[in-house]
Amino acid sequence: MTNQYQPLHPPTRYEIAAWIITGAVLLLLLPLHLLGALLAGLLVHQLTHLLVPLIRRRITDDRAKLVSVGLLSALIVGAVVGGIFGLIAFFRSDAGSLSTLLGKMAEILESSRASLPHWVVEHMPENTDALQKGMVGWLRSHTGELQIFGKEAARGFAHILVGLVIGAMLALYEVQPIAAYRPLARALIERAARLAEAFRRIVFAQMRISAINTAFTALYLAVLLPLFGVHLPLTKTLIAVTFIAGLLPVIGNLISNTVIVVVSLAHSPQTAIASLVFLIVIHKLEYFLNARIVGSQIQARAWELLLAMLAMDAAFGLPGVVAAPIYYAYLKNELSSRGLV
């Protein structure tokens, strides 16, 4: 049996320097709270790249092509910003209020104590007051983190806006004739291209998975349950949470499933069990989709992504969980290109 990997030339010092610089930048983005800017820039850059071929086929004049790509980038930036404000407005409204959802979950858990097994009740708060005391204690122990979060929220949104603009500018710049690059610049551009490719494969694939998962969940919550006379509260919020949480591979599905099962207790334990069974089926479907869509894109299994997310969570917290799939896809791309994995 012959080796399927062709022997590669040893890496040049420029490639080694580019790997070190890229790795350092990617890791520094997390403690510097610039991950949002990176993801926003990559999103605009990739969306523009998907639509640019249509312009290139229809427009031959370089100046007209430049103007068209500029307008396209501006429209994409506007659409992304509008989508962000739309989500914020929805979750602040009565139909999608997260605070209302959390309060409803607390009420459901308290009212369901009498109908739940004893071993489950032992691990639940005694009443709403106990739950509130627990939440207050958690808030006090994390006061510093919450203050930092509040102060950083506006700055983080500004970083996202800057990232959107940078992504649009880079897409615009690539339409222009490119001069010859020197060795280190060429190696860095190759690393950036691999990172953008990893982002496209992971994020767009996960968006498809989340959309499919949300569609099945919406059919269950808004169509199937009402056919049997079951109308759960805050259905729109549950559907929105399912899509947003579903953008995180594996763990996002667990978050949305927990919320749906708890809300199902508002009707009856039987409804909660039915929801749990249905969501387990959907969860298995998501594993299949991860293997077929995400796994086929980067040749990685679900447990690999989960392990990467656990490691990044331990090192960087929630931003690490978000970045882990993209970083892992980029790392595996680099290793595969050298025939190492």
Automatic annotation (TrEMBL):
<protein>
    <submittedName>
        <fullName>AI-2E family transporter</fullName>
    </submittedName>
</protein>
<keyword id="KW-0812">Transmembrane</keyword>
<feature type="transmembrane region" description="Helical">
    <location>
        <begin position="272"/>
        <end position="293"/>
    </location>
</feature>
<feature type="transmembrane region" description="Helical">
    <location>
        <begin position="156"/>
        <end position="173"/>
    </location>
</feature>
<feature type="transmembrane region" description="Helical">
    <location>
        <begin position="238"/>
        <end position="265"/>
    </location>
</feature>
<feature type="transmembrane region" description="Helical">
    <location>
        <begin position="16"/>
        <end position="45"/>
    </location>
</feature>
<feature type="transmembrane region" description="Helical">
    <location>
        <begin position="305"/>
        <end position="330"/>
    </location>
</feature>
<keyword id="KW-1133">Transmembrane helix</keyword>
<keyword id="KW-0472">Membrane</keyword>
<feature type="transmembrane region" description="Helical">
    <location>
        <begin position="66"/>
        <end position="91"/>
    </location>
</feature>
<feature type="transmembrane region" description="Helical">
    <location>
        <begin position="209"/>
        <end position="232"/>
    </location>
</feature>
